[in-house]
Amino acid sequence: MADKPIRVLLVDDHQVVRRGLRTFLEVQDDIEVVGEASDGDEGVARAEELRPDVVLMDVKMPGTDGIEALKRLRELANPARVLIVTSFTEQRTVVPALRAGASGYVYKDIDPDALAGAIRSVHAGHVLLQPEVAGALLSQDDPHGGTGRGPSLTEREREVLGLIADGRSNREIARALVLSEKTVKTHVSNILMKLDLADRTQAALWAVRHGLTR
């Protein structure tokens, strides 16, 4: 267990949902709910004010929705990891949210213990791709138009990319491939540059589409 609890911000327009999430999360020893917001605008403002580690974000909200809020957090270079928690399962909702920078996507009927595990996972730097979400992505056209092997990726870069898609952190990748973390970081930077991707989440999506997951 980490010395400091994971600081979580709840962003959902339904008070009863926020209350339920808070009630459950507050009994977790390693998770602390630091604030709430009822729409995307307030969510972005609170994220900038409170600097949480993880934001639980709904997608469909009045005014600024979750996807637009995600884009604004990225533009502000806010370091919070965003976990989408929603009842919407349509591909037209899932895919844009992940492309906008979400670190994971779960549904509101998720088992409470699984939700706590999801929070811990994205906080640790992993990308949370549930099977049905990966399936939605696989049915979409590739936004980057690459081939299955990727433009000029080395074999080592492909190995690193596959491990990113498996949800491994840089430290875990370094251990698996017997490399230094600094070397892994260099490989990750090269992968993002070569594939013209913004972050590890987009890299994981690319890897899922091109069959690099195990």
Describe what you observe in this structure.
- By secondary structure, the protein is an alpha/beta fold.
- It is built from 10 helices and 5 strands; from the N terminus they run E-H-E-H-E-H-E-H-E-H-H-H-H-H-H.
- Strands 2-1-3-4-5 form a 5-stranded parallel beta sheet, with helices on both faces.
- Helix 4 (91-99) links the parallel strand 4 (81-86) and strand 5.
- Helix 2 packs parallel to helix 3, helix 7 (155-165) crosses helix 10 and helix 8 (170-177) crosses helix 9.
- It is globular.
Task: Quickly describe the structure.
This protein has helices at 15-25, 40-50, 66-75, 91-99, 112-123, 131-138, 155-165, 170-177, 181-195, 200-209, and strands spanning 6-11, 31-37, 54-57, 81-86, 104-107. It is α/β, with parallel strands linked by helices. Helix 7 crosses helix 9 (181-195), helix 7 (155-165) packs across helix 10 (200-209) and helix 8 (170-177) packs across helix 9.
Could you list some keywords that capture this structure?
single chain; 214 residues; alpha/beta; 5-stranded parallel sheet; 10 helices; globular
